[in-house]
Amino acid sequence: MLDTLLAIAHHILIFALLGLLVAEMIWVRDGIPAATMKTLIRVDGIYGAVAGLTIIVGICRVIWGLKGAEYYLHNLFFWLKMATFVLVGVCTVPPTLAFQRWRKALAGDEGYLPSSGDIAKVRRWLRAQLHLFVLIPIFAALMARYSGYITF
Ligand code: HEM
Fold this sequence. Notes:
By secondary structure, the chain is mainly α.
């Protein structure tokens, strides 16, 4: 039962993460209105919180999942999945820093608009996240079905 509940939570959180990331991708455009920028900054905080919950639920699945932690800790695909998730996390840093700069600029000037260069840079990081994100379910499916046993 616990395994099923954790699996359900895991999948819902993953869909939420993807939805929030796609929303950011759609909103970050040249000429983004101030109101959208404020929503975007809030959504980026929610994205971070959902990522945190995904990590917690994921770790719970490793510990209390039906297969047991040993199965995952020696599974190559599990570590590839974790490494990809960490890379996604690294790619969230520059956009979040940019959003915080925009928030401060907006507080001083309601008509503030990020430069085209700034927008393009943030979009590149968001696109990188989306591309890496696609790899995670691939590694997840492999890890669930093949032991990919590694010793260390
Ligand atoms: C720290 C983060 C994460 C941990 C520790 C974790 C751990 C796990 C575990 C233990 C399972 C169960 C696999 C099995 O049935 O044997 C699982 C399944 C799955 N995970 Fe994650 N996960 C994490 C993040 C993610 C993310 C970010 C995504 C998607 C982008 C994801 C996608 C999936 C999918 C699609 C499955 C189902 C695989 C299948 O049954 O075919 N996980 N995860």
